[in-house]
Sequence to fold (247 residues):
Amino acid sequence: MLPSSRPDSALAAERPPPPSAESAFDALYVSTVPGLTQQAYVLTGCRRLAFESAEQAFHRAWERWPEVARDPDPVGWVRARTHEYALSPWHRLRPGLDRTGPPAADPVARAFLELPPWQRRAVLLCDGLDLSVEEAAAETHATAFATAGRLRNARAALGRRLPDADAGASGQALRTRVKDASVATLAQPWSVRAASERRVRTLTRAVFGTLATLIALVVATSALTSPPGAPADSGRSSPHTAGISGK
Fold:
């Protein structure tokens, strides 16, 4: 084959430029946020928390975008943060969260929400998203042995709560529910990026403000606790010295 007579500069000019960080983030957001929101709703039964979980995950993704962009599975990166935020135990102490969950007509979803959080996540990843046990273990930072045990116990519990449905039917119902990502009103990607940048600026100002306050306190404390200086009239002779020198 004859070598190309076209210069390398011409070939390089024909290559499309790499996408910007903003466009790459926006593409990831648009393609995944509906499904992640639905997954968080299945995990929690709370719509407000579902939207919040997905949005918070993308806040973190934009703040650490170079790391996310280099990750071999950016979708898995954001999914893991969504699930972790959704299942965080501190949400139990938050007032105002709607925990009514799915309607009684959805027995699979209600039985699923009765499982412990770590079992819920294992079932969602393996039965709802068709991940392998090893992939689910890697995403949840657990061993494959532990993940397999959680999955086995969760399926057994679902079987006891749903005696009329076999494991395959329960898994199919959960899979259908996870993939039923309704077209809901979601934040635009540019607003998520802007909110992340505002949060970083706010945190930075708070850190510097706290540091300045600590420095001022240290200086003030040092000034108050430093030993007193020598007497101001140190050149004046004491009476005893004067008597000796007058002899």
The mean pLDDT is 78. The two ends are 118 Å apart (CA to CA). The chain has twelve helices and no strands. Residues 30 and 237 are 87 Å apart (CA to CA).
